[in-house]
């Protein structure tokens, strides 16, 4: 069946409120010699949709994105700043879409809006993977988590979804109730490399 848009999904849909608003200190922090090793941005320009096919046959595409079937892979045809479909498990995906995009829909799918329940941190720079590796047992090198791949894991004891957009760009999807604790740890770990926090 063709995909259908839910007009109610884009009507008076409030923008997510950041749990980091009182903890986000824009500017340069830590080591100040040379360019920053880590640049941090909170991605608020997105809507997050959890898609579960259950026992139904999932469509090949949804919201214009190919739904990846290979574990720990993602589809982001426009690059790290564009829409993405991230594999979460058999028949389950996370769609990262523009904030005003209509609700994805297809027959037999369960689709849940997680935009208000998740915080997305983007870390960019040559020291990003070193900082993340300090709190994760996975191999987060470029070989272990190449561009386009994703991984569900614990990061400094916090459950997260990591998505590597490029060799030096990683998005961290974290439940909003853990966002402050994770950010405080990440920002502290990044100080030695030089941390630039974007407004």
Short description:
The protein has 199 residues and is mainly β. Helices cover 11% and strands 34% of the residues. The strands form 3 sheets. A 7-stranded mixed β-sheet has the order 1-14-2-10-13-12-11. The protein has a 5-stranded antiparallel β-sheet with strand order 6-7-8-3-9, with no helix packed on it. Strands 4-5 form a two-stranded antiparallel sheet.
Topology at a glance:
Blueprint: E1 27-29, E2 38-42, E3 47-52, E4 61-62, E5 65-66, E6 74-75, E7 84-89, E8 92-97, E9 110-113, E10 118-124, H1 128-133, E11 150-155, E12 158-166, E13 169-175, H2 176-190, E14 195-197
Parallel strand pairs: 2-14
Antiparallel strand pairs: 1-14, 2-10, 3-8, 3-9, 4-5, 6-7, 7-8, 10-13, 11-12, 12-13
Task: Explain what this protein looks like in three dimensions.
This protein has 199 residues and is mainly beta. The protein folds into two domains: 25-45 and 116-199, Gyrase A, domain 2, CATH 3.30.1360; 47-114. It contains two helices and 14 strands, in the order E-E-E-E-E-E-E-E-E-E-H-E-E-E-H-E. The radius of gyration is 17 Å and the shape is globular. The termini are far apart. It comes from Roseospira goensis. This is Heterotetrameric sarcosine oxidase gamma subunit. Residues 1-39 are annotated as: Disordered.
């Amino acid at each position: 069946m063709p995909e259908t848009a839910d007009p109610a999904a884009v009507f008076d849909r409030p923008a997510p409120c950041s749990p980091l608003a009182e903890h986000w200190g824009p500017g340069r922090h830590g080591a100040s010699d040379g360019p920053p090793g880590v640049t941090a941005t909170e991605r608020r320009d997105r809507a997050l949709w959890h898609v579960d096919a259950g026992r139904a046959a999932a469509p090949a595409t949804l919201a214009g994105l190919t739904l990846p079937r290979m574990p720990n892979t993602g589809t982001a045809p426009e690059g790290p700043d564009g829409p993405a479909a991230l594999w979460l498990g058999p028949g389950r995906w996370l769609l990262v879409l523009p904030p005003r995009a209509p609700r994805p829909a297809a027959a037999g799918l369960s689709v849940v809006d997680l935009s208000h329940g998740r915080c997305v941190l983007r870390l960019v720079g040559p020291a990003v993977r070193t900082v993340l590796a300090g709190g994760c047992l996975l191999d987060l090198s470029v070989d272990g988590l190449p561009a386009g791949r994703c991984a569900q894991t614990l990061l400094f004891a916090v459950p997260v979804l990591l998505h590597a957009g490029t060799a030096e760009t990683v998005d961290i999807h974290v439940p909003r109730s853990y966002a402050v604790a994770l950010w405080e740890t990440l920002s502290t770990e990044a100080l030695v490399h030089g941390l630039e926090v974007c407004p």
